[in-house]
Amino acid sequence: MKLTLLFTLLFSGIFAQNRDSVFIRSIYNSALTNGHAYEDLRSLCKDVGARISGSAEAQMAVEWSKATMEKYNFDKVYLQEIKVPHWERGTTEAGWIRSKKDGLVKVNMLALGGSIGTEGLLESEIIEFKHLDDLKKAKRSAVEGKIVFLNQPMDEQQINTFKAYGGCYAIRGNGAVEASKLGAKAVIIRSLGMPIDKHPHTGGMHYEDSIKKIPAAAISTEDAEILSLMLSKEKLEFVMEMDCRSYPDASSYNVIAEITGSDSPNQIITFGGHLDSWDTGEGAHDDGAGVIHCLEALRILNELNYQPKHTLRVVFFMNEENGNMGGKTYATWSKNRGEEQIAALESDRGGFAPKGFHCDGSEKQIELLKSFKEHFLPYEMQEFEKGHGGVDIGPLKGSFPEIPLFGFVPDSQRYFDFHHAPSDVFENVNKRELELGCGAIGSMIYLLDKNL
Amino acid sequence: MKLTLLFTLLFSGIFAQNRDSVFIRSIYNSALTNGHAYEDLRSLCKDVGARISGSAEAQMAVEWSKATMEKYNFDKVYLQEIKVPHWERGTTEAGWIRSKKDGLVKVNMLALGGSIGTEGLLESEIIEFKHLDDLKKAKRSAVEGKIVFLNQPMDEQQINTFKAYGGCYAIRGNGAVEASKLGAKAVIIRSLGMPIDKHPHTGGMHYEDSIKKIPAAAISTEDAEILSLMLSKEKLEFVMEMDCRSYPDASSYNVIAEITGSDSPNQIITFGGHLDSWDTGEGAHDDGAGVIHCLEALRILNELNYQPKHTLRVVFFMNEENGNMGGKTYATWSKNRGEEQIAALESDRGGFAPKGFHCDGSEKQIELLKSFKEHFLPYEMQEFEKGHGGVDIGPLKGSFPEIPLFGFVPDSQRYFDFHHAPSDVFENVNKRELELGCGAIGSMIYLLDKNL
């Protein structure tokens, strides 16, 4: 190789790297100095609020999202119609411990999403299990006719709190089925929250067609501790009423914004989070932060006049929490239109300080992700590894088997303080932490567009 | 080398590494599952509260610290007497913008620590400078007789907020001297806080003997924005009263606990934070978290029956905020006793999620720190680099030039939301983030003891 050619190649390589680093710096500067993320999230949380699929608030969230996207001069903004489950909490929801010694003790309780109601007062002796496996091993005679209390705590020794959540998830998802198999009247779970506090955490649960449906609710971790302590001293009854119920499927929408690719408009980079939330709090971290991260990333790329090679498409998915109909419908729809999905990225782990990105993909795709790490070191991000993408983008693998899925990874320590709880409100999102996430995702989308 | 010997060495190396990793895991488990840190910090914040040097609260903090240490069965707990400055805010402190158009607008204001009072109402025209350098370049005629308003914001584009703080620090430290040089009556600074909010942030400032002392105070970032906007439309007066003043130096104490080294009791590993705080909020992050981190680290090592080779000594330094007399006195005292200080570590960057440790030391000492990184990767810590130790342990370099100083590095994003402000209260410290810091420092002290 001639020396001049070598120098040219070296120089152009360094130049490209430097150009990337300058552009990424400008993305971050925009996010941190003139960002719209914090105000957009405030408005979503306060002007719309909690927005469970099928609710009036979810419909208002769709309107809000479309109007907000339309302010930002993207090439296209549109709705994609989907069908979603429709479950409502109703107006009556209360639970008490009834003790011979202490009388009635009211607890902080939320029905689990999808649960049937109690049809008036439901009361019975309550029996505690410290682990779902203990319930599975119990005799029918010990459980029949009682209310089962699943008091399995999240493992504080897990450093990453999502691992602790995964270890407990089954008490919420499968508790009702397992308790009903043994003839229980209802199931009460300890909230899947990390701290001991007064906030109950709701979330999805499921029934099986062959097993009788029983009501399921979560009580706060503090109430779980109190109930457990009381049960160590005497037999107790639990009294509850819930009039939650399911309705026929409703129409709803994914909300989509895009900048058309200049070279390959049919090659799509999809990024987003979920617009729906549970019906408590304001869905600030879960997943208001995630949709705003992605909207702001696209807004900044647009503001900086970035001309993408591929079409950059932000999707606010509806119905991640109890059905994932937004993600499923989107994957099929895109395939049927003859699009080529070349990468997807999701933010659904809260608006905390960014640590990195994970990749669900081939070795080569994971290597590509790792090659990006150097660009993020000045932004204090170090975690670029194989891992989970996200629930909404998951179905894309079915339609596009080669697609790499990227998951945004913020710090996890505070996420399960707020997850699915009344405390998941705007005030618990830090402005800078949110903005750093926007910078990270904008930079990642830029690098993907340049390198794919 | 014989193969058997090679295997023995290899095996013992792997064994030692594995033993370290098991022990570090047990330190973390203790911190996360049975920790005392959160309750100890609650008690320090709520039962003692803000504790500026020379105050009754500082004396109560000394008593509280000694009593708390004595509960934990260390080998020694004792006080080290020091002299500290004594400044009090007094009972009157208020500031107003006076506008011809809008009347009086009250601001959220705190005198800077060490400031003189106003001796009754002080009022004058207020003149804004966006940077301390602009004030330095101003003409005396423009400033004389007025109140100077230094409205230099922290740079949001800095990723690490301590760099943004460093860039603004001079408006607080030197603002009064520079304004007085040009004949100003008083100086008002924009608080060194990152968010735009209502909390004023106090902090240290200084005078020079040859320059006339003038009152100095900080207003909230929100008030600074309002004042600046109003000044863009009309001339304004500022009205203020403060009766803060300095008193003669007072007696106070560093509070010390130690476990005596089994091999080299005269070789000391010092670790700590500062017990004093400013006189607003509760000193929760600054530096309640730091002293509790270190106390909890020693408590856990003791609970696990760890027998250190060197003496492990926790020092709750008094007076870091306005004189550093605790740090200075300790360094001299230790030298005079004929001790050998082999390493020191400080936690004074808040109780946030740990990112790593910095080392102020030789290349070899920094290499040693870097060799520890692998032990911390399972705990999501990645930052093991050359950097600052801490203010309290800084003077040890004067007495022990070879000593490596280690600084605990937590995430910095939220620190300047609370620093020196009324919002630095216990409720803004997250339990898990605090506990992870205790695990990190306990593990670091263990590794230093084993490897020095």
Overview of the structural elements:
Chain A has about 450 residues and is α/β, with parallel strands linked by helices. The first copy, chain A, has two domains: about 25-85 and about 250-450, 3-Layer(aba) Sandwich (Aminopeptidase); about 90-245, Glucose Oxidase, domain 1 (3-Layer(bba) Sandwich), CATH 3.50.30.30. Helices cover about 40% and strands about 25% of the residues of chain A. Chain A has 14 helices and 16 strands. The first copy, chain A, has helices at about 5-35, 35-50, 55-70, 130-135, 140-145, 160-175, 175-180, 220-230, 285-305, 325-335, 365-375, 395-400, 415-420, 430-450; strands at about 75-90, 95-100, 105, 110, 120-130, 145-150, 185-190, 215-220, 235-240, 245-260, 265-275, 310-315, 340-345, 355-360, 385, 405-410. In chain A, the strands form two sheets. An eight-stranded mixed β-sheet of chain A has the order 1-10-12-11-13-16-14-15, sandwiched between helices. In chain A, strands 3-2-9-5-6-7-8-4 form an eight-stranded mixed β-sheet, with helices on both faces. In chain A, α11 (about 365-375) links the parallel β14 (about 355-360) and β15 (about 385). In chain A, α1 packs antiparallel against α14 (about 430-450) and α9 crosses α14 (about 430-450). The longest helix of chain A is centred in the first third of the chain and has 31 residues, at about 5-35. The first copy, chain A, is elongated, with a radius of gyration of 24 Å. The model of chain A has no long low-confidence stretch (mean pLDDT about 95). Chains A and B meet through α1 and α14 of A and α1 and α14 of B.
